[in-house]
Amino acid sequence: AGSEHLASTARRFTEELLPVLDSRASHLLVELLNPNPSCQTTNQQVQEAHKPVTEPQSRQNQNDYVLLGQRAKALGIEPYVLSPTCEEYQAIVLAGSDAIAQTLTTIAEITARMARGALVKNRAAGREQLVVAYGGALHNDIAPDAARAAWSYGPQLSGLTRGRYVAVDLIVRELIKDNEVWRALPWYAYFDPKREPDSSVLMRITPNDYVLFFPKTRASGSAVP
After folding, report:
1. Residues with Cβ < 8 Å from 75, sequence gap 6 or more?
2. Maximum distance among all Cα pairs of the chain, rounded to whole angstroms
3. Angle 45-49-51 from CA coordinates, rounded to 5°
């Protein structure tokens, strides 16, 4: 919240990067938990448990994700949101004060499951198209540290694809802050947001693991191309 004057990462991905995947990708998995109509009571409990995360978010957050799905479909890329079982929703509720951590684990597990299913469908149909997952930067790590390993689908998908999995973090440089969360990221000490402000900067962390920093936003609200 408070950064609505900046184009969000989701909006930049939708407008600038998604069109590049036209005819190259078959599926787009978007990190939104789809309420399961079979477990309405649990859905409400999960929403309550997620308030510490959802309340500070930008008012545009949900709209940007909806537009992402619509744009993907227009390009012929089938968008999917994550579909938890009632048991997975219940596990989040039962986690109590650890509900957020359990949610992160659940997101990783569902994304891996759905991506695996999409890859199998492509192979059965003889399609050489990409399966793309869009979501939080913690989930795509190829080699997460032990404390966050359960939150990442990267190792599973890297193994499943025999090393063809690629992780790309997308960063709006104006949102980088000097706090513990940002300092823990492997690129933090090596990137100066004030350098090359009018250019996109691509940093390779390890083989198949990249960070793309968008240009600084112009006063009008649009990023420099």
Report:
1. 18, 19, 21, 22
2. 51
3. 120
